[in-house]
Design brief:
Blueprint (H helix, E strand, L loop, with lengths): L3 E6 L6 E6 L2 E2 L8 H18 L3 E8 L2 E12 L4 E2 L6 E2 L3 H15 L25 H5 L22 H4 L20 H15 L3 H13 L5 E2 L13 E3 L6 E3 L9 H4 L1 E3 L1 H13 L5 H8 L17 E4 L5 E9 L2 E8 L4 E7 L9 H13 L1
Antiparallel strand pairs: 1-2, 3-5, 4-5, 4-15, 5-6, 7-11, 8-11, 9-10, 12-13, 13-14, 14-15
Helix pairs in contact: 1-10, 2-5, 2-6, 2-9
Length: about 375
């Protein structure tokens, strides 16, 4: 495989450098998929050059098998470390999808009633003007606020899930629960506290023992900034002037593990999606519960279930997905349940092409028909 040149501006336009980085391909694809892979590979390389994104990883699974897994560019620009499928990226709000599996486990075990007030599981959470249920919180229907000011890049370490609730727990609800949809990462911080209360152990322990461990997701971890984490990418952004690549702002995501604090690989995310399709982790009825759009009180669908967005593509095919944005990182996990197709994309920059993952999916869906 020929090397390709990725143009990177390091510190400003005058410091531009060319770096020769060979893509790392783990899986030898069947001839059926070669046209789609060739087209998608060229698209990723070209888009990274245009955006100045240092590194990316892509995994595509079909019928439970990896048909393409490849790393592109640099995980660490300073040390010239290439991305491989083992590289761990920030997955941002895809953490909500991961956490939804823990919620589903406790629901199917009868340990969480989705229509119970959250205080049943988190007694210390203040009672609001209106009651809020677990289902409403998980579907962004509870009126809990999102980030304010500089909260997206907090640097303080929070010792526990419950400590992190202090950021927003005393604030008023934005609206009467059930009447509107309003996306809230903090709502999923509250869901992690619900999981602790119902599961009887710390949230991260529950995720490790009940979700990541059983699925062999050994490369998915909470990002403790004071820990040495093998294969962790470094994270980048662009300068305010639109010039070269620079290091992303330091951030400690301990206040929002469930909503945006995990590191993972594209292969682990693919493995997670496949476990939901084949019933390895959750019962099919539970998966459908998570993947079914909720509705506002007036009957309008929100396009969001619990930890998953749900819609149809231009051809009417059902799909479930979640994107994720972190400081210096972006993520996308897309599942076509009926076609058993899973695509995961991770980038160590906020300059990203994750929204085009649906285009990549179209190429693979078309290849299958040939």
């Amino acid at each position: 495989m020929l090397p390709w040149l990725l143009q990177l501006g390091l510190g400003g336009p005058s410091a531009a450098a060319q770096v020769a980085v060979p893509p790392y391909a783990q899986v030898e694809p069947a001839s059926t998929w070669l046209p789609a892979i060739t087209r998608a590979r060229a698209f990723v390389i070209d888009t990274m050059k245009k955006l100045g994104a240092p590194g990316a990883s892509v995994t595509v699974m079909k019928n439970g098998q990896i048909i393409w897994s490849e790393g592109f560019g640099l995980a660490d620009v300073e040390q010239q470390v290439a991305v491989t499928p083992l590289t761990r990226f920030r997955v941002g709000s895809v953490s909500k999808s991961l956490t939804s599996a823990a919620l589903g486990l406790l629901v199917q075990e009868g340990r969480i009633d989705l229509d119970a007030p959250v205080q049943r599981y988190v007694p210390g959470f203040p009672v609001k003007r209106w009651p809020i249920t677990v289902r409403q919180v998980a579907g962004h229907l509870a009126g809990i606020r999102h980030y304010q000011g500089e909260e997206f890049v907090l640097k303080r370490h929070w010792a526990s899930v419950h400590d992190g609730l202090a950021i927003f727990k005393d604030d008023s609800l934005l609206f009467e629960p059930g009447t509107r949809y309003s996306y809230s990462t903090y709502g999923w911080s509250l869901i992690s506290a619900v999981i602790e209360g119902a599961g009887g152990q710390p949230y991260l322990d529950f995720m490790n023992t009940r979700v990541f461990g059983p699925l062999g997701m050994h490369n998915t971890v909470a990002e403790f900034v004071d820990s040495l984490i093998p294969h962790r990418a470094r994270f980048y952004t662009r300068g305010d002037s639109g010039g070269g690549v620079i290091n992303a702002t330091f951030v400690d995501n301990s206040y929002k593990w469930a909503g945006g604090g995990f590191l993972s690989t594209t292969e682990d995310l693919g493995r997670f999606g496949d476990a939901l399709l084949d019933g390895t982790l959750l019962k099919p009825a539970t998966v459908q519960l998570l993947w079914t759009s909720q509705k506002t009180r007036d009957g309008k669908e929100t396009g969001y279930g619990m930890g998953w967005r749900t819609d149809k593509d231009s051809a009417g095919r059902r799909r479930v997905w979640h994107s994720g944005g972190s400081e210096g990182g972006t993520a996308y996990l897309l599942i076509y349940p009926d076609q058993k197709l899973i695509i995961s994309v991770l980038v160590n920059s906020d300059q990203t092409f994750i929204g085009a993952s649906s285009t990549i999916a179209e190429w693979f869906l078309a290849a299958e028909k040939r």
